[in-house]
Specification:
There is one protein chain. The protein has 586 residues and is an alpha+beta fold. It folds into four domains: 3-97, OB fold (Dihydrolipoamide Acetyltransferase, E2P) (Beta Barrel), CATH 2.40.50.100; 136-238 and 258-275, OB fold (Dihydrolipoamide Acetyltransferase, E2P) (Beta Barrel); 288-360, Dihydrolipoamide Transferase (Irregular), CATH 4.10.320.10; 368-585, Chloramphenicol acetyltransferase-like domain (Chloramphenicol Acetyltransferase). The chain contains eleven helices and 28 strands. Strands 18, 21, 24, 25, 26, 27 and 28 form a seven-stranded mixed β-sheet that branches. Strands 3-6-8-1-9 form a five-stranded antiparallel β-sheet, with no helix packed on it. α9 (415-429) packs across α10 (475-490). The longest helix has 16 residues, at 368-383. The protein is globular, with a radius of gyration of 28 Å. The termini are far apart. It binds oxidized coenzyme A (CAO). The site of oxidized coenzyme A has 19 residues, from α9, β22, α10 and β25.
């Protein structure tokens, strides 16, 4: 017999005024059990409220912009089974019998992070029932040691570590990410519960951990002040973490904004800085802003959300945006398809080989950054017709100046900031290097700002921090900024903004070695400069060979945008600028 039930907002942590940002169903819709009904978004997490049962939506009880909390009415659902998945439409908003009610306050609050979107709503607490405070941590005494363990990560056990952010001896601030775990349902950053020095850290990527697994001990900084104490030590109940953003169906994971605080642990902090993929990959490689249900929808259609422009506030991607993207892609003329094609190109697959037949092997999961940058360089390589132009610049005088200025200013000046400045100057003279091809391949977008990214080698893979307004900065400032960004990159502390907006990239392998190489253009940029190791070479001055310090340069460019002659002029100009720094001031 058909029965009506009122679907309520499940336990969403301590949030009590969360805006509804999307209503995904309308009256009359037939929904499956677990189908997302509405999307809520706090400043910390995006979450879908799923249908507790299959049924027909009779009426919607809220609208976009409404602010809700646990127990708020979402809609009325007519179900066949008559099972009270939420509560009868007429009943008080209390005691909604979830299919699998949480056994206790602790699990109902803390499991929400990893499973809110797929679990049926948990039993709402009565309106005046306060969430259970998170159990106090062992005090992290100043100058003492605190053992750090994996916090409550919901129902998950044996969760693989996908990223390690610290090593033994590192000094961390409270809430700095120590490592990232990824189950099939959620990605969770484990933060430092206090500021201190990491000791006894032995975990590595691929290790599997569960709640309570030892991570390291923290030698608590003597100057640790109250603000550094774990939230759970404060008298107020610790903030109950928000549910992890996750897919309703496939468990596609996103970093939780604030995942469960463990007993004795500080709540997990907002997600680690967005993935340090090469800047141009940002659109595609960084987690796009979309609700779990939209992600699922996109996945089903094979849409890369990184390619979709969000029309909702803060660039959030809506259902209509995905649909529009699909329509546009289907209608796109072959030229623009060619401009965008990567996943659709039917390149022959590399045969799958069982390497174990030839000898012992070990399979190591790739770190997230590596996976993202692999996807990005692959896209760039497939989409961009590359040409690489090589040359060498005589930096004999520059080198002498660099050394003298390093001593004089006390700032370590490497070759990189000089090259960056020279590239900026050359880009000003050859503005097509400061451009991007429009997505439809019909026009050139010329940028009136000049930000340059540089590839940085980090333990977790390649990242591309971006130095802004290079044309307006001096060499010393550039040296300081690149050194600072490179350190942040290696420490895994770069923020999303610090990897966005690049116009051109420099990949300097000069500190390592090698002569020339072919850098891959960092799409949608159109040029990248590879710098190799300088060496003394005999250079003919018209009368005799002179020993000169030569640095090899490799300029790769997008041949759809840049003609060969234009690129040759650009690199010749660059070589001249490096050979005679006085030209930089002209
Ligand atoms: N020729 C000779 N020596 C060079 C040089 C060059 N072209 N470039 C740098 N060096 C020297 C520096 O002067 C420094 O020497 P000292 O320590 O004796 O002063 C040493 O090499 C190390 O420099 P550095 O690498 O620390 O500093 P940098 O400013 O040159 O580079 C950074 C910074 C972040 C670009 C670099 O550390 C890095 O990560 N490079 C790798 C980039 C990369 O992976 N590219 C590939 C991307 S595609 O996969």
């Amino acid at each position: 017999m058909a029965k009506e039930m009122e679907v309520l907002v499940p336990d969403i942590g301590d949030f009590d005024s969360v805006p509804v940002i999307d209503i995904l169903v309308k009256a009359g819709d037939q929904v499956e059990k677990e189908a997302p009904l509405v999307t809520l978004e706090s400043d910390k997490a995006t979450m879908d409220v799923p249908a507790p049962q299959a049924g027909i939506v009779k009426s919607i009880r809220l609208k976009v912009g409404d602010k809700v909390k646990q127990g708020s009415a979402v809609l009325v659902l007519e179900t066949d089974s008559g099972e009270a998945a939420s509560k009868p439409a007429s009943a008080e908003p209390k005691n909604a019998a979830a299919e699998k009610p949480q056994a206790k306050a602790e699990s109902s609050s803390q499991n929400s992070s990893a499973s809110a979107a797929t679990k049926p709503p948990s039993q709402p607490k009565s309106p005046d029932e306060k969430p259970a405070p998170i159990a106090p941590a062992k005090p992290a005494e100043k100058g003492g040691k605190q053992e750090v363990t994996v916090p409550d990560i919901g129902d998950f056990k044996e969760v693989p570590i996908i990223e390690v952010r610290v090593k033994d001896g590192d000094v961390v601030a409270k809430e700095d990410t120590l490592l990232t775990l990824e189950s099939d349902k959620a990605t969770l950053d484990v933060p430092a519960p206090a500021a201190g020095t990491v000791r006894g850290f032995k975990l590595k990527v691929g290790d599997k951990v569960s709640k309570g697994s030892a991570i390291c001990s923290l030698e608590i900084a003597a100057e640790t002040n109250a603000a550094d104490q774990p939230a759970s030590e404060k008298t107020e109940p610790a903030e109950k973490p928000a549910p992890a953003k996750k897919s309703a169906a496939h468990g596609e994971a996103e970093a939780p904004s604030s995942a469960p605080g463990n007993l004795g642990q500080a709540p997990l902090p907002p997600p680690a800085s967005p993935l340090p993929a090469p800047d141009a990959a940002v659109d595609a490689a960084m987690i796009p802003h979309a609700s779990p249900s939209i992600r699922k929808f996109a996945r089903e259609l094979g849409v890369d959300l990184g390619q979709v422009k969000g029309s909702a506030p803060h660039g959030r991607i809506t259902l209509e945006d995905v649909q529009g993207y699909v329509k546009k892609s289907l209608a796109a003329p072959s030229a623009s398809v060619a401009a965008n094609a990567s996943s659709s190109s039917s390149i022959p697959k590399i045969p799958v080989i069982d390497f174990a037949q030839f000898g012992p092997i070990e399979t190591q999961p790739l770190a997230r950054i590596r996976k993202l940058s692999a996807a990005h360089v692959h896209r760039s390589w497939l989409n961009i017709p590359h040409v690489t132009q090589n040359d060498e610049a005589d930096i004999t005088e520059l080198e002498a100046f660099r050394k003298s200025q390093s001593e004089e200013t006390g700032v370590k000046l490497t070759l990189l900031p000089f090259i960056m400045k020279a590239v900026a100057k050359a880009m000003t003279a050859y503005p097509e290097f400061n451009a991007s091809l429009s997505p439809d391949g019909e026009s050139l977008i010329l940028k009136q700002y000049l930000h340059i990214g540089f590839a940085a080698d980090t333990p977790n893979g390649l990242v591309v921090p971006v130095v802004r307004d290079v044309d307006q900065k001096g060499i010393v400032a550039l040296a300081q900024e690149t050194a600072e960004l490179a350190k942040k990159a290696r420490d895994g502390k770069l923020k999303g903004d610090e990897m966005r907006g690049g116009c051109f990239s420099i990949s300097s392998l000069g500190g390592i070695g090698g002569s020339h190489f072919t850098p891959i253009v960092n799409a949608p940029e159109v040029g990248i400069l590879g710098v190799s190791r300088s060496s003394i070479k005999p250079v003919w001055d018209g009368k005799a060979f002179q020993p000169r310090l030569m640095v090899p340069l490799s300029l790769s460019y997008d041949h759809r945008v840049i003609d060969g002659a234009y690129a040759a002029r650009f690199i010749v100009q660059l070589v001249k600028l490096l050979a005679d720094l006085r030209r930089l001031s002209l």
